[in-house]
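2024-03-11 09:14:02 DEBUG pipeline.ingest accepted 1 chain
2024-03-11 09:14:02 DEBUG pipeline.ingest length=464
2024-03-11 09:14:03 DEBUG pipeline.predict start
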Amino acid sequence: MDAGLKQDNGNVIHRKKDIFVIISSLVIIGAFIVVAMISLLSELGMHPDEFDVKLCLDWCMKRFIWPDMRLTGEGLGDTYSGYGYTKVCNYSPYFLIFSKIALVFKQFMANLPYYRMPNLILMAGICVYMLMKLQEKNYLMLGFGMCIQAWYIFSYVTADAEDFILAFFAIALLCDKNSDPRGDASVDGGGRKSVGGLNGNLNRLPIALGVLYGLMLLGKPYYYATLVLIFIVYLERLVKSEVKIRKQLLPRYILIAGIAFAILAGRAAIDLHYYGFDKASAKQQMEEQYADPDKNPLTPIEEQEPTYHMASKGYSVADFFEYNPDWFELSFRSFASYSVYPDGHTIFYIVMGLLYAAVYVWLGITLCRDGDTWIFVVVTLLNIGNVIASLLNSYLIDSQPQGRYLLPIALATCFLGARARRVWDNRIFRTLVLAASCLSILYFGLFCSRKLIDLGYVKTLLAM
């Protein structure tokens, strides 16, 4: 009798999980459709920095190495923004790689936005992966299924899409179903023991993992929080492994780190060749030449934009918040949606904030009960550090709240969801995740897309 009841309960849970997977899959498919619509039908310039970034992509189409920022001939000068800097010279290889894909689409897309196709392809890749893995990895929804900003960055040309997808797959590897280092040791194809799913990946993919982490080191610094989390988990698994297994893992860890830092060093060597140890002077030279008057170092301080480089102008943190009293609110708005601008839908942000908080607290309680308090504390501290880093970026550089700088928080929460695996057996928790996901896709599709797609522009586009 008891065995029969347990089997019936198991079948009920399985059916409810199937419903979760079906609805989640529809959310992911819906997100891709909306992103594709925005990508194909929104006008150039509707998205952050897109004019400048498109020029960077176009300039790199037939080039294969980062340029010296001072050699502004052959059109490089046209890629400089009003901040006096060109993204072509960032450490990221985004423009050098994905410009070649854009070039292919440019040959036959006529008036359609060929420059957005690389990111749309990245979006398709991550969506296919989600649809293939959701049945066994429900926790992926925490990383990519309930945050509009995570979808939105794939709808226009921006290097943030590359940074996010690299970090997403790094976390996906970290969240292997056997990721708990206290699990039973498994035997790999060569008859050797390995602990945890990621250790199995280490047996097969140390070079690929090294390249992945190396590319992340070249990306936006706010994803360094993801790399720190990965390092901490690696260290935990190493410490908790048996001595024999530890001897197998340590050389692989060293190989991965060596490849990653070799990629970073290689990119740094290019700049060292160009500028020696005085890259700062080159940057200032170009800022003086190309920056807008309100951001130009040659402009008297009292005539410059007061919220630009506030710290260097002598403003305190208190002064920063006097200029930006709603910084936290606007950062959250652009994280949960696509923009910092008030849109009259405050209730959406309140509900999303409550849902996010409920999911995060539930994960924390589950992990604490399971004896994993330390990892929850570590991830929470990293998330707080991510917010502080975004705040410092606004204070030290440009006072613009940016929700996309907080996307590593979603990925860290995804890791917590994998760690607290039994939480997915709870119907209420799954309902909270689905509520956040469904509300996000409805808002993205019914409101955000209407703001970003001008029907007049669409009619003009179709008439061409």
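2024-03-11 09:14:41 DEBUG pipeline.report The first helix runs from residue 2 to 41.
2024-03-11 09:14:41 DEBUG pipeline.predict end
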